[in-house]
Amino acid sequence: MLTLNLPDMTCGHCAGAVTKAIQSVDAGAKVGIDLNTKTVTIDAASDDAVFTQALEVAGYPATVSAA
Question: Does the model's pTM come out above 0.90?
Answer without folding.
Answer: yes
